[in-house]
């Protein structure tokens, strides 16, 4: 059985997808780009500002499912410029700092929706 996760604390889906889906003990959080949930507009400025917004959006989706970053078992990071990886990694470490860190993949892509420089998705497990 699956259940849609929806929160006004994260941007509304901009297409035919859910912010997150609970399937058993797993939450599959859709990729977040740096959209301000209040305006629906892309956060302008530095990669730091965009990364912060993304992780706050993911936090909101996790929290709506009564989870937090310690429950995340896998994360995927998409960057339009892989040279931003070290900066994003520092911000990532502020949010993912538990005893068991998630498995992760980071890749450079040609482009992201709305001209974002970064997108992050994750899978969380609530069974422990």
Automatic annotation (TrEMBL):
Coiled coil: none
Domain of life: Bacteria
InterPro entries, per database record: RidA (IPR006056), RutC-like_sf (IPR035959), YjgF/YER057c/UK114 (IPR006175)
Matches recorded under SUPFAM superfamilies: YjgF-like
Pfam families for the chain: Ribonuc_L-PSP
NCBIfam families assigned: Rid family detoxifying hydrolase
Family: Belongs to the RutC family.
The protein, known as: RidA family protein
């Amino acid at each position: 059985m699956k259940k849609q996760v929806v929160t006004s604390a994260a941007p509304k889906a901009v297409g035919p997808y859910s912010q997150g889906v609970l399937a058993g003990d797993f939450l599959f959080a859709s990729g977040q780009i740096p959209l301000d949930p209040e305006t629906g507009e892309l956060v302008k400025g530095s990669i730091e500002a965009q990364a912060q917004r993304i992780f706050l959006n993911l936090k909101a989706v996790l929290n709506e499912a009564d989870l937090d970053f310690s429950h995340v078992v896998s994360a995927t990071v998409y960057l339009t410029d892989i040279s931003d990886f070290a900066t994003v990694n520092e911000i990532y470490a502020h949010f993912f700092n538990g005893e068991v860190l998630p498995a992760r993949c980071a890749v450079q892509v040609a482009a992201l929706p709305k001209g974002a420089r970064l997108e992050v998705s994750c899978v969380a497990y609530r069974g422990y």
